[in-house]
Design a protein that fits this description.
- The protein is of the alpha+beta class.
- It folds into 2 domains: about 70 residues, Glutaredoxin (3-Layer(aba) Sandwich); about 130 residues, Up-down Bundle (Glutathione S-transferase Yfyf (Class Pi), Chain A, domain 2).
- It has 9 helices and 4 strands.
- Strand 1, helix 1 and strand 2 form a beta-alpha-beta unit.
């Protein structure tokens, strides 16, 4: 199997983390999204959506981080993707929750417009409006995450870590690029602390933390 990815990619990191943590037989291939390699014919022939990650398993190919995590969980019968119908449904639910409104408002509304030039809106007024809207909406979703999805549990779906924590944890920690510390969200902070105890966390997220260090002196709207 081969995973096409970039180490700083929010969507690539959870898949890389699962592969590293479970020592899965998957070869990694870096797609340099910073130089535009994902727009070149060689890669777009594989993935017309021109995104990472992208997985090849023989002649089977698939995109989308959440789907790849579920595929790997099923293929290797990992406890992080339980086979019990209701437990698996809960994991799917949480992953879908992260991947929809939460990702839209937090990543594409608040985070990415402040970090990546290609997310710059046509005017400063529109740009600042997008960020303000994203921050306002993201605060609502973080309240749901803290009080209802995590609550008193160590992980999002119960007492054991699942691929929902790999997925959601990597999305939420992308906020560290703009200095988010999640003060006032004690359950989120505790949960992130649990996820970061994974033995592969530091190595998989090395590039993310290097990127965050390069941005630490910049003023950002943050949570």
């Amino acid at each position: 199997m081969k995973l096409y990815m970039h180490p700083a990619s929010t969507a690539s990191r959870p898949v890389r983390l699962l592969i590293a943590e479970k020592k899965l037989p998957v070869e990694e291939h870096v797609v340099d999204i910073l130089s535009g390699e994902h727009y070149k014919d060689e890669y777009t022939a594989l993935n017309p959506s021109r995104q990472v990650p992208f997985l090849e398993d023989g002649d089977f190919r698939m995109t989308e981080s959440s789907a790849i995590l579920k595929y790997l969980g099923s293929k290797f019968e990992l406890p992080e993707y339980p086979t019990d119908l209701k437990k698996r449904a809960r994991v799917d639910e949480v992953m879908d929750w992260f991947n929809t409104q939460f990702m839209r408002d937090f990543a594409y509304g608040l985070l990415y417009p402040q970090v990546f030039p290609h997310h710059k809106r046509p005017s400063d007024e529109i740009h600042q409006g997008v960020i303000a809207w994203g921050k306002d909406k993201a605060q609502v979703w973080f309240g749901v995450l803290d009080k209802h999805i995590i609550g008193s549990k160590p992980y999002t779906c119960g007492d054991s870590i699942t691929i929902a924590d790999y997925f959601g944890g990597c999305i939420v920690t992308a906020g560290e690029l703009i200095g988010c510390t999640y003060e006032g969200l004690p359950n989120v902070q505790r949960w992130l602390g649990n996820v970061k105890q994974l033995s592969s966390w530091a190595s998989v997220n090395e590039v993310l933390y290097g990127f965050a260090a390069s941005l630490k002196d910049k003023p950002f709207a943050r949570l």
